[in-house]
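Quick note —
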Amino acid sequence: MQEGALWQHPVEQLLLGSLGILPMAPLATVEPTQLPSVLRRVEERLRQEASPTSADELWAATYLLLGLRYDDRTVSEVVTRMSWLQESSTYQAIRREGLAEGRAVGQLEGRAEGRVDTARRFILDLGSDKFGAPSQTTTSILESISDLSILERLHRRILTASTWAELLASERLG
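Predicted structure written out below.
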């Protein structure tokens, strides 16, 4: 292969080169409309010449390299149109990993939000029993607090406060 930037090379050089450089073919002089055709040729070579393990690794490299040249929308559109790519075990593994990571982050965020909501509900329930129904201002102030440690301190102070105003003043909130 000749010197120069990869995106300046004719795609044919990469498509006909060794299997190791095949994942870089979509980065060569390829118009977005040509991308499905280039990927199909990459897939054909991998199916014919590579072991299943090597093919999976090279597909992973190809998929990841797409992001160097094409925006997320283009990559997503290509993958959506190319059902054979969606069936790739590498694509499925990357997708599963992304979904698992998203779920884990969502669960952590959900747990934290759930704990804050639960703490607010306990304060409102216990405070209502002790001080009477909270005013709209008191409810708004409590709903604006997202710091769990503050809500936990308020929860403990319900035992010693005698009014909503005294409880909120203990944290200098209202």
